[in-house]
Design a protein that fits this description.
By secondary structure, this protein is mostly helical. It has one domain (about 5-120). The protein has 6 helices and 2 strands; from the N terminus they run ββαααααα. The protein has helices at about 15-20, 35-45, 50-60, 65-80, 85-105, 115-120, and strands spanning about 5, 10-15. Strands 1-2 form a two-stranded antiparallel ribbon. α4 (about 65-80) runs antiparallel to α5 (about 85-105). The radius of gyration is 15 Å and the shape is globular. The N and C termini lie far apart (about 50 Å).
């Protein structure tokens, strides 16, 4: 059973809220969650909204930039670990997190670099 919380006529999956906030015990009272984290929850739950949310993310003042980056990293790690559960869903979620991270931080913290990309000689 999936739990939801409603704030300002928007429905948020509690599973996603817990992932983004890093709080496995989070209840359905989401009033104190920063706006950028709730926006990330929207994009994670519906990746097809991302093109319409990019400007909001780009223009948004992040209250705690390092904490928000940890939110993005948590989503990427979770998506990679759950890839076998639903490949398309978790590829989309990972893509959303990486795209937002690249947009806001200009690089990706957990970027996977293949050996041939870094010029490792045998």
């Amino acid at each position: 059973m999936v739990e939801f919380a409603i704030l300002d006529d928007k429905k948020y999956s509690m599973q996603t809220v817990r992932l983004v906030t890093g709080n496995v015990a989070a209840g359905t009272d989401i009033h104190n969650i920063p706006e950028e984290q709730l926006l990330l929850c929207e994009a994670i739950d519906d990746p097809y909204l991302l093109p319409f949310l990019l400007e909001k993310f780009y223009m948004m003042e992040i209250k705690d930039a390092e904490q928000f980056r940890l939110c993005l990293i948590r989503v990427q790690v979770d998506s990679d670990m759950r890839l076998n559960e639903d490949i398309q869903k978790h590829q989309h979620r990972g893509y959303v997190a990486r795209t937002i991270e690249k947009l806001m931080y200009r690089d990706i913290f957990l970027e996977i670099v293949r050996e041939e990309d870094v010029g490792v000689e045998a």
